[in-house]
Amino acid sequence: MFLTFRDEVEAALSEALSALDLPTDDLGIERPPEDVPAVLASSAAYRLADVAGAPPPKIAADIVGEIDPAEYDYVGSVQTQGPYVNFLPSDRYFEGTLEAAQADDYGTLEATGDSVVVEHTSANPTGPVHVGRARNPIVGDALARVLEYAGNDVERHYYVNDAGRQIAVFTWAYETFDESDLPEPERESPEYEMVRYYRKANDYLEEASESEQEAAEDEIGAILQGLEEGDEETYERVSEVVDTVLGGMTETLGRLPAEFDEFVKETRFMRDGSTDDLVDRLKELDAAVFEEDAWQLDLPDFEKNLVFLRSDGTSLYTTRDLAHHEWKFDNYDRAVTVLGEDHKLQADQLSSTLELLGHDTDRLQQVFYSWVNLPEGGMSTREGTGVDLDDLLDEAIDRAREEVEDRLEDRQRSDDLDGADVERIAHQVGIGAVRYDVVAKQPTKGITFEWDRALDFEAQSAPYVQYVHARCCGIIDEGKDAGYEVPETVSAATLTTDEERDLLRAIARFPGVIERAADELRPHVVATYTRDIAEAFNAFYRECPVLDADPETRAARLALVAAARTTVANALDALGVEAPDSM
What is the reported pTM? Predict the structure, then answer.
């Protein structure tokens, strides 16, 4: 209802301003403060004061005088508040909201017809996923979900770096060292077993004699050259290492969950000739220069040139990524990439180069994120001192289990939770707490993950919102046990208290929240909304008895609870957080 309401407000303002012979290019539509019962307001009178030669309150009154709410379905009344024009909802607005939110897919927008590829995570397959980079799969997966809710056809891609020096070093180490030379793996999982070779290689290369280093570097260089030349045996050697590590990393990411439709390997664009073709076209650009025995692009907006072909004739990561992005443009309408803030320069150079190659880079959007830190300090997979994501998730589940068990005695619901129930809820709450705490912040702001905040059932956290869903389920289940079913149709006119109307207004906003989060590529907007609706529901729960109300009121409030349940569940789903039925 909110999106239709907004369309009506836009039409009403445009027609009113035109009738007053005032410009309509900026309608000034915004969400009013919480204590204003309007759904939307307009501050256009501020902007038009000089044009109209009148004070803003006078202009606002003139605008209201030109609008007849009876001409619209969902606009109930239009009022001035100083210089603001407030648009209040009609009963039909609340009626439509209550009906629409009963549908399981509430919040899903109409299909846009756009195909969108979201590339995220793409961590080098050199070992376990560590906490510092956990923001990428969490934000990336949530962003893909939000874009799907917004009606787009979304594919999730992981771009696998299987052609760089790190992988060549890894492959050399795997073929050089015996397992007996390695420490015990931290976990019985492929990536934990394999990373020992990679760490051993880095230690060896730092401590080996000059002749030993030279011999190792010759072998590592031969692997890189073999990949560049498309040697099948070299590719198979590298793939054995990459695929083994990636298999373990995928299991960890699946715990979040963050799943992928396709793993696109970097070597794909070397083996199919697209990198060579790209290099030929880059050489023909006016910006191409041959300096210091390497081909480079002299990009005017950057201090450093972009090297795209080394002196030995090998391409670079960015060269292959350019070919990768051309492939994206050939196959998708839009490409969204989630990147760490340390990749911003590389991403900007890539975008500028794609423009030089004649591509419409408006189709390419990048979301940058800052790191996740723990109070304990820094992390590094290479040094083997990082905190692995598996460890964080294990601890999250353990802490959530303790919290759930501590709260069992105070539960008011009649259903008994057995050990399996507690374990299920612990997973839902623990992993949900990690995801929510990460995705709820603006990506560019750094995060220090703190357990007390993330698992606080009373504060603005995942458990706080999840508990609202569980409470909705409990009310509906208790109603069924007493013979009270959620009615298929109900009049919203029965819902007249401030708390009921506030909750309805919050529910109605959900499709608009999805639209905004998708347009701005900011899934944290949805997280903020979940806290708003949780607060609105809790205020309703405190002031409005459901099952003890008279029959007509009970039926309407049950429908409202069902609408809230669906909305909270879908909003959490858009973030990739599970909505427990009981807690």
Answer: 0.93
